[in-house]
Amino acid sequence: MSWSRCSYDIMVAGEFQAVVLAAGHGSRMTEVTAGRPKCLLPIANMPMIWYPLRMLEREGFQDAIVIVADNTKSEIQAALEKCNLSIRLDYAALPPGKEDWGTADSLQFINEKIKSDVVVVSSDFITDASLYPALELFRKNEAAVTMFFLKPAEVSAGDSLPTPGPKTKHKPERDLVGINADTSRLVLLASVSDFDETLPLSRGLLRKHPHLQLYSRLLDSHVYILRKWVCEFLVQERSLGTLKGELLPYIVRKQSSKPTQKVEDASTIRGNTKNDIFQFAKESTLVSKVLPISLSNDHWGDMKGTFQDDKIRCYAHIVEGTSFGMRVNTLQAYASINREILQIWEKVTGGNVLVRLHPGAEVKSTQVDDSTLVGEGTLLNEKTSFKSSTIGASCTVMSRTRISNCVIMNNVKVNEGCVLTNCILCDGVEVGANTELKDCLVGAKHTVGAGDKHNQEFLADEDVLMEI
């Protein structure tokens, strides 16, 4: 079924709720999250979470539930109120002390707010791809779950500059994903690390899905479309704490199982301690009446009904073409997206106006190139040079200083005579006069001594180092 843009917007607003996961503290990039929530890390002087929220706006969502940690709610809310978003945000703060809850735990926590099928989005996902094909795949197949993937060729590899800080070996997590090429059924989801040299596949699985394609390098966007009954099941099955690592592999495996007994009304079994997922997997009344008499089928070679009589069905959408997509969940990814964001700005924001030099900034320098951004209340003195850098709000850069390929967050002071190349400076940093930093990462509120020279180092106060 094809939809006009107007019909699509109505469908999105009426049938789906958006949930944005923004409570994570960035365990893989603690060097830059010690001073602020991960979802507020600046990218082109906009908070990271603004990008998935802007995507949801483009897709027709009018409301979103944003799950945050209790101790960061006010900071996140204040930051987003300055972003001129039209989407209405309902902030759900996790209980104090529960900041380490898994993603499935967080979804359980807001269960009373969930009134329809859900689109779960991570606060660190940036893309120009549309959700429309995935939502349509979900709807027409009455899916329990639909996952949203991008191919490796469509994930930017970044540029040749090293990631600021000490040299480290970046070993990305890899998933094994098995998809029926004919139907887009997702039939295998596991981590590569779960297997040694061989991957066992049952004959029954291969007979059922003879055109099975295996992938090991897809980007999982952490955009998950879930049926409402899946969220209800989560409330009862408390042992599943994470979506990616536990819930989704569990549901994918359950597709090949059959219910042990027929249950007429899922609402009557919530007290059942057995927590059989099939007790929750109820098709809509219309679908249950249409399928037995439908002549349509998604397979051949047997007498089984549509969807091979499976009550639980999972699907995967792989974005085709030249779409951009990246999860900014590592330091390497954060450095890379800041280098690339201006080139993809129009695509990932839907043509949102880019504020290159904030009207509240005081720019006395005559050497600020077109790929440099300057935030509100920042002073750039004369006799300074800026290339391909992002300077945050309320910063001061003194004379005779050169800055290139840097990300400088808020309230940073760079004294005179400094040379900064390919560095990330977190909030509240002060760099002493005549200092040279190359490929360095400076932690929040750290002071770099005057005349120092550092190369590929992480510079931070002792309390930040202890936290990391």
Question: Which terms summarize this structure?
Answer:
single chain; Spore Coat Polysaccharide Biosynthesis Protein SpsA, Chain A; 2 domains; 7-stranded mixed sheet; UDP N-Acetylglucosamine Acyltransferase, domain 1; 468 residues; eIF2B_gamma; NTP_transferase_dom; elongated
Compose a concise summary of this entry.
Belongs to the eIF-2B gamma/epsilon subunits family. With 468 residues, the protein is α/β, with parallel strands linked by helices.
> What form results from the Cα inertia axes?
elongated
Strand content: 15-25%
Number of domain modules? 2
From the coordinates shown, what is the CATH architecture of the largest domain? Alpha-Beta Complex
N-to-C CA distance: 50 Å
How would you explain this protein's 3D organization?
The structure is a single chain. This protein is α/β, with parallel strands linked by helices. It folds into 2 domains: 5-349, Spore Coat Polysaccharide Biosynthesis Protein SpsA, Chain A (Alpha-Beta Complex); 362-467, UDP N-Acetylglucosamine Acyltransferase, domain 1. 23% of the residues lie in helices and 24% in strands. It is built from 12 helices and 32 strands. A hairpin with a 5-residue loop joins strand 9 (175-180) and strand 10. Helix 5 (103-109) crosses helix 8. The chain is elongated.
